[in-house]
């Protein structure tokens, strides 16, 4: 409260909030000094305690007004700039700044003036601005970096589901928010290597003081590097790869630990072991244990992709309104053992968790932990996928078949259509769990 108390002055026995408009906002707020009564008498609050709280409210509203003003000004500046670029293209030229125009060969400069004369637009100010580059490019600040990056990535994001978009957006927004904490809301074009070094040092201090994971820091650095390089290229900013080689050494990827197959058979698949989980959550676990599906792949199965009446009952992993993790993720997997029994009871899939795999993961992991069924550090529900892969390795399944079941890339030239459903089922039956619970 002490800083806000500095904005308080006594006038006619009443505490008043008074603050000079910062230079950054002066262009659209010409009032000079803002004065507003707190309506709290000095005699009732001599130590400014209540008045400081009132000042905090006034200050918060004022700063929000200033920020909105900046955003509005930025939007208008962007609109002016986009229009002048369109005008330049309409007149047959690339829009460049006045400084760049002056540096072009004299022949090109003359062509621009001749274009104005030929179209009889010598006194047309918008046309002059378009051909002579008199409208400056709006400054892109860090607070606008993500929106600009998302716009540039729009084509790549078109197949993502809302849940996938949320997962894609959030870590990038967090990285920018953390960067702003360190360097402030700078213009992207003014960022330097020193800013990146300050951010790296900030993260190093957090890793030590708060026991944060190094990989968390490196993810922030990686996201910022990717966003800045993409935006820099699009806007020809030439700020350079300021985050290159900034990763902090010593991090680990946090590889999940597989369950022992015997533990899955004797403990996870024991009758009553999963009592307390709702039917859909329990049956997703059964499905994953026999198929190695990613959790999101299991949650987004539908009646159209569950083929129980086929000669070889199977599930089809398809996009279904979401982007596939890899090209190889699209695959068909036979149903055997407890997975087949579970899916007979879920012919429409798992509507409760469709596009909500994170919620299911949190629920099941909490349940398994409470039942002491996560015996090693790093084990989660997803560990069943690693167990599935280990079981294929144990029976020496061909690499091509294992890759087809896991949805991994097969690192050899691709010929033919790959293993058939019958071939896949033959190998899955070799590793199917034998003692099955009531599903």
UniProtKB/TrEMBL annotation:
It comes from Methylobacterium gnaphalii. Residues 254-429 form the Tyr recombinase domain. InterPro entries: DNA_brk_join_enz, Integrase-like_cat_sf, Integrase_catalytic. GO terms for molecular function: DNA binding. Transmembrane segments: none annotated. PROSITE patterns: TYR_RECOMBINASE. This is Integrase. Signal peptide: none annotated. Keywords: DNA recombination. It comes from the Bacteria. GO terms for biological process: DNA integration; DNA recombination.
């Amino acid at each position: 409260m002490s800083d806000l108390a500095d904005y308080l002055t006594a006038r006619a026995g009443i505490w008043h909030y008074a603050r000079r408009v910062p230079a950054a906002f002066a262009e659209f707020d010409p009032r000079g000094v803002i004065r507003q009564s707190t309506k709290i008498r000095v005699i009732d609050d001599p130590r400014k305690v209540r008045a400081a709280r009132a000042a905090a409210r006034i200050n918060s509203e004022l700063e929000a007004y200033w920020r909105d003003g900046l955003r509005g000004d930025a939007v208008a500046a962007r609109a002016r700039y986009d229009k002048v670029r369109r005008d330049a293209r309409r007149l047959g030229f690339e829009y460049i700044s006045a400084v760049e125009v002056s540096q072009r060969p004299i022949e090109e400069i003359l062509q621009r003036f001749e274009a104005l004369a030929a179209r009889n637009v010598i006194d047309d100010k918008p046309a002059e601005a378009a051909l002579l580059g008199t409208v400056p490019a709006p400054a892109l600040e860090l607070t606008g970096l993500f929106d600009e990056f998302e716009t540039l990535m729009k084509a790549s994001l078109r197949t993502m589901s809302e849940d996938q978009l949320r997962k894609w957006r959030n870590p990038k927004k967090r990285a920018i928010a953390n960067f702003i904490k360190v360097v402030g809301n700078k213009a992207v074009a003014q960022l330097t290597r020193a800013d990146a070094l300050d951010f790296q040092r900030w993260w190093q201090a957090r890793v030590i003081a708060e026991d944060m994971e190094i990989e968390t820091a490196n993810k922030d650095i990686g996201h910022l590097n990717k966003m800045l390089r993409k935006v820099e290229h699009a806007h020809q900013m030439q700020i350079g790869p300021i985050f290159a080689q900034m990763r902090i050494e010593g991090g680990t990827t946090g590889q999940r630990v597989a369950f022992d197959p015997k533990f899955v058979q004797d403990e996870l698949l024991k009758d009553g072991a999963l009592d307390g989980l709702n039917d859909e959550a329990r049956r997703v676990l059964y499905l994953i244990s026999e198929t190695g599906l990613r959790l999101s792949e299991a949650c987004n199965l539908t009646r159209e992709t569950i083929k129980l009446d086929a000669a070889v009952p199977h599930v089809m992993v398809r996009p279904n309104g979401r982007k596939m993790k890899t090209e190889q993720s699209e695959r068909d997997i036979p149903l055997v053992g407890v997975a087949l029994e579970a899916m007979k009871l879920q012919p429409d899939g798992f509507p409760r968790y469709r596009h909500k795999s994170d919620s299911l993961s949190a629920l099941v992991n909490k349940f398994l932990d409470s039942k002491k069924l996560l015996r090693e550090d790093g084990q989660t529900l997803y560990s069943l996928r690693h167990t599935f892969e280990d079981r294929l390795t144990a029976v020496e399944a061909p690499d091509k078949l294992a890759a087809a079941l896991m949805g991994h890339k097969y690192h050899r030239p691709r010929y033919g259509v790959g293993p058939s459903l019958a071939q896949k089922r033959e190998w899955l039956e070799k590793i199917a769990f034998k003692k099955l619970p009531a599903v």
